[in-house]
Amino acid sequence: MESTEKLTDTNAILAYLYETFPLCFIAEGETKPLKIGLFQDLAERLADDSKVSKTQLRIALRRYTSSWRYLKGVKAGAQRIDLDGQACGELEQEHIEHAQLTLKESQEKAKAKRIAKATAAKASEKASKKPAKKVAPKRTKPAPKPVKEAAPAVNLTPAVLNELKQNQRVNVKLGKSPVAGVIVDIKKEDVQVQLDSGLTVKVRVEHIML
Protein backbone atom coordinates (compact mmCIF):
# COMPACT_ATOMS: atom_id res chain seq x y z
CA MET A 1 0.00 0.00 0.00
CA GLU A 2 1.40 3.40 -0.96
CA SER A 3 2.01 5.84 1.87
CA THR A 4 -0.09 8.97 1.50
CA GLU A 5 0.82 12.32 2.99
CA LYS A 6 -1.47 13.12 5.91
CA LEU A 7 -3.65 16.20 5.64
CA THR A 8 -3.25 18.65 8.53
CA ASP A 9 -4.84 21.85 7.22
CA THR A 10 -8.53 22.11 8.17
CA ASN A 11 -9.49 23.68 4.83
CA ALA A 12 -7.72 20.87 2.97
CA ILE A 13 -9.58 18.25 5.07
CA LEU A 14 -12.92 19.97 4.37
CA ALA A 15 -12.12 19.99 0.66
CA TYR A 16 -11.38 16.25 0.94
CA LEU A 17 -14.75 15.64 2.67
CA TYR A 18 -16.59 17.66 -0.02
CA GLU A 19 -15.01 15.44 -2.64
CA THR A 20 -15.43 12.11 -0.80
CA PHE A 21 -18.96 12.65 0.56
CA PRO A 22 -20.57 15.19 -1.80
CA LEU A 23 -24.13 14.21 -0.81
CA CYS A 24 -23.41 14.91 2.86
CA PHE A 25 -20.88 17.74 2.92
CA ILE A 26 -21.98 20.56 0.61
CA ALA A 27 -19.21 22.88 -0.56
CA GLU A 28 -21.41 25.78 -1.75
CA GLY A 29 -24.94 26.99 -1.18
CA GLU A 30 -27.42 25.79 1.42
CA THR A 31 -26.32 22.90 3.59
CA LYS A 32 -28.37 20.24 5.37
CA PRO A 33 -28.27 19.31 9.05
CA LEU A 34 -26.07 16.29 9.72
CA LYS A 35 -27.07 13.08 11.44
CA ILE A 36 -26.44 12.99 15.19
CA GLY A 37 -23.39 10.78 15.74
CA LEU A 38 -22.14 11.34 12.21
CA PHE A 39 -18.56 11.60 13.45
CA GLN A 40 -18.56 7.91 14.39
CA ASP A 41 -19.79 6.96 10.91
CA LEU A 42 -17.15 9.22 9.38
CA ALA A 43 -14.36 7.73 11.49
CA GLU A 44 -15.40 4.19 10.53
CA ARG A 45 -15.59 4.99 6.81
CA LEU A 46 -12.15 6.59 6.88
CA ALA A 47 -10.53 4.13 9.30
CA ASP A 48 -8.25 2.77 6.54
CA ASP A 49 -7.60 6.19 5.04
CA SER A 50 -4.15 7.41 6.04
CA LYS A 51 -4.83 10.95 4.82
CA VAL A 52 -6.73 12.13 7.89
CA SER A 53 -6.61 11.50 11.63
CA LYS A 54 -9.61 11.36 13.96
CA THR A 55 -8.45 14.55 15.69
CA GLN A 56 -8.24 16.48 12.42
CA LEU A 57 -11.61 15.07 11.31
CA ARG A 58 -13.24 16.28 14.52
CA ILE A 59 -11.78 19.79 14.06
CA ALA A 60 -12.95 19.94 10.42
CA LEU A 61 -16.44 18.69 11.36
CA ARG A 62 -16.69 21.35 14.10
CA ARG A 63 -15.64 24.03 11.59
CA TYR A 64 -18.32 22.85 9.13
CA THR A 65 -21.17 22.72 11.67
CA SER A 66 -20.32 26.11 13.25
CA SER A 67 -20.32 28.01 9.95
CA TRP A 68 -23.13 30.51 9.32
CA ARG A 69 -24.08 28.60 6.20
CA TYR A 70 -24.67 25.42 8.19
CA LEU A 71 -26.44 27.15 11.12
CA LYS A 72 -28.87 28.83 8.68
CA GLY A 73 -29.74 25.39 7.33
CA VAL A 74 -30.77 24.13 10.78
CA LYS A 75 -34.40 25.24 10.55
CA ALA A 76 -37.93 23.94 10.95
CA GLY A 77 -38.88 21.25 8.42
CA ALA A 78 -35.27 20.38 7.53
CA GLN A 79 -34.22 16.69 7.59
CA ARG A 80 -30.95 15.41 8.99
CA ILE A 81 -28.84 13.42 6.51
CA ASP A 82 -26.19 10.71 6.78
CA LEU A 83 -22.90 10.35 4.86
CA ASP A 84 -24.76 9.18 1.78
CA GLY A 85 -27.23 12.06 1.83
CA GLN A 86 -30.08 9.86 3.08
CA ALA A 87 -32.69 11.49 5.34
CA CYS A 88 -32.59 10.21 8.90
CA GLY A 89 -35.08 12.19 10.98
CA GLU A 90 -36.42 15.67 11.51
CA LEU A 91 -34.78 18.29 13.66
CA GLU A 92 -35.90 18.81 17.24
CA GLN A 93 -37.08 22.30 18.23
CA GLU A 94 -34.35 22.71 20.84
CA HIS A 95 -31.68 22.02 18.22
CA ILE A 96 -33.23 24.64 15.92
CA GLU A 97 -33.34 27.23 18.71
CA HIS A 98 -29.75 26.46 19.73
CA ALA A 99 -28.56 26.87 16.13
CA GLN A 100 -30.41 30.21 15.75
CA LEU A 101 -28.97 31.51 19.02
CA THR A 102 -25.45 30.41 18.07
CA LEU A 103 -25.81 32.10 14.67
CA LYS A 104 -27.07 35.34 16.22
CA GLU A 105 -24.22 35.47 18.77
CA SER A 106 -21.61 34.69 16.10
CA GLN A 107 -22.94 37.40 13.78
CA GLU A 108 -23.08 39.99 16.58
CA LYS A 109 -19.53 39.12 17.60
CA ALA A 110 -18.32 39.46 14.01
CA LYS A 111 -20.14 42.80 13.66
CA ALA A 112 -18.60 44.17 16.86
CA LYS A 113 -15.18 43.03 15.66
CA ARG A 114 -15.67 44.81 12.29
CA ILE A 115 -16.80 48.03 14.01
CA ALA A 116 -13.84 47.94 16.39
CA LYS A 117 -11.44 47.35 13.49
CA ALA A 118 -12.99 50.17 11.43
CA THR A 119 -12.89 52.55 14.41
CA ALA A 120 -9.24 51.72 15.09
CA ALA A 121 -8.36 52.21 11.41
CA LYS A 122 -10.21 55.55 11.33
CA ALA A 123 -8.47 56.75 14.48
CA SER A 124 -5.10 55.69 13.09
CA GLU A 125 -5.76 57.51 9.80
CA LYS A 126 -6.91 60.63 11.65
CA ALA A 127 -3.82 60.57 13.85
CA SER A 128 -1.51 60.26 10.84
CA LYS A 129 -3.18 63.22 9.08
CA LYS A 130 -3.33 65.45 12.15
CA PRO A 131 -0.34 67.83 12.23
CA ALA A 132 1.66 67.80 15.39
CA LYS A 133 0.72 70.59 17.72
CA LYS A 134 3.39 73.21 17.97
CA VAL A 135 3.90 74.32 21.51
CA ALA A 136 4.55 78.04 21.51
CA PRO A 137 7.40 79.00 23.78
CA LYS A 138 6.30 80.85 26.86
CA ARG A 139 6.99 84.52 26.59
CA THR A 140 8.75 85.85 29.60
CA LYS A 141 8.61 89.51 30.41
CA PRO A 142 12.02 91.10 30.22
CA ALA A 143 13.33 92.16 33.60
CA PRO A 144 13.10 95.88 34.10
CA LYS A 145 16.39 97.59 33.48
CA PRO A 146 17.88 99.02 36.63
CA VAL A 147 17.79 102.76 36.67
CA LYS A 148 21.28 104.10 36.85
CA GLU A 149 21.68 106.63 39.53
CA ALA A 150 23.54 109.69 38.48
CA ALA A 151 27.03 109.63 39.93
CA PRO A 152 27.60 112.45 42.34
CA ALA A 153 29.75 115.22 40.91
CA VAL A 154 33.32 114.91 42.14
CA ASN A 155 35.70 117.88 41.99
CA LEU A 156 39.06 116.48 40.95
CA THR A 157 42.29 118.44 40.82
CA PRO A 158 45.35 117.74 38.65
CA ALA A 159 48.08 115.80 40.49
CA VAL A 160 51.56 117.17 41.16
CA LEU A 161 54.37 114.69 40.49
CA ASN A 162 56.29 115.50 43.68
CA GLU A 163 53.20 114.82 45.80
CA LEU A 164 52.54 111.34 44.36
CA LYS A 165 53.71 108.16 46.07
CA GLN A 166 53.25 104.37 45.75
CA ASN A 167 49.99 102.80 46.96
CA GLN A 168 48.26 106.16 46.74
CA ARG A 169 44.72 106.13 45.40
CA VAL A 170 44.26 108.33 42.38
CA ASN A 171 41.98 108.82 39.41
CA VAL A 172 43.22 108.33 35.87
CA LYS A 173 41.63 110.20 32.97
CA LEU A 174 40.70 107.52 30.43
CA GLY A 175 38.11 108.59 27.91
CA LYS A 176 35.22 110.74 29.18
CA SER A 177 35.35 109.89 32.87
CA PRO A 178 38.21 109.23 35.31
CA VAL A 179 38.86 105.69 36.56
CA ALA A 180 39.99 104.99 40.14
CA GLY A 181 43.12 103.03 40.86
CA VAL A 182 46.28 102.71 42.99
CA ILE A 183 49.81 103.93 42.08
CA VAL A 184 52.15 100.96 41.65
CA ASP A 185 55.32 102.69 40.47
CA ILE A 186 56.62 106.18 39.57
CA LYS A 187 59.37 106.68 37.02
CA LYS A 188 60.09 110.31 36.26
CA GLU A 189 56.89 111.64 34.70
CA ASP A 190 55.45 108.19 33.94
CA VAL A 191 53.18 106.79 36.62
CA GLN A 192 52.11 103.12 36.63
CA VAL A 193 48.60 102.72 38.05
CA GLN A 194 46.66 99.52 38.76
CA LEU A 195 43.04 100.32 38.09
CA ASP A 196 40.23 98.92 40.24
CA SER A 197 39.27 96.78 37.26
CA GLY A 198 42.60 94.94 37.62
CA LEU A 199 44.17 96.51 34.55
CA THR A 200 47.58 98.17 34.96
CA VAL A 201 48.27 101.28 32.87
CA LYS A 202 51.23 103.64 32.51
CA VAL A 203 50.20 107.27 32.12
CA ARG A 204 51.75 110.72 32.22
CA VAL A 205 51.30 112.74 35.38
CA GLU A 206 48.96 115.17 33.62
CA HIS A 207 46.41 112.36 33.26
CA ILE A 208 46.25 111.76 36.99
CA MET A 209 43.70 113.52 39.11
CA LEU A 210 43.27 113.69 42.89
General description of the model:
With 210 residues, the chain is an alpha+beta fold. The longest helix has 37 residues, at 93-129. Strand 4 (177-187) and strand 5 form a beta hairpin. Helix 1 crosses helix 3. The protein is built from five helices and seven strands, in the order H-H-H-H-E-E-H-E-E-E-E-E. The N and C termini lie far apart (129 Å). The relative contact order is 0.08. The protein has a five-stranded antiparallel sheet with strand order 6-5-4-3-7, with no helix packed on it. A two-stranded antiparallel sheet has the order 1-2.
Question: How are the strands of the largest sheet arranged?
Answer: 6-5-4-3-7
Q: Per the principal axes of the C-alpha atoms, what is the gross shape?
A: rod-shaped
Radius of gyration: 53 Å
The description of the largest β-sheet is: 5 strands, antiparallel
Region (Disordered): 119-149
Subcellular location: Cytoplasm
InterPro entries: ProQ, ProQ/FinO, ProQ/FinO_sf, ProQ_C
Pfam families: ProQ (PF04352), ProQ_C (PF17516)
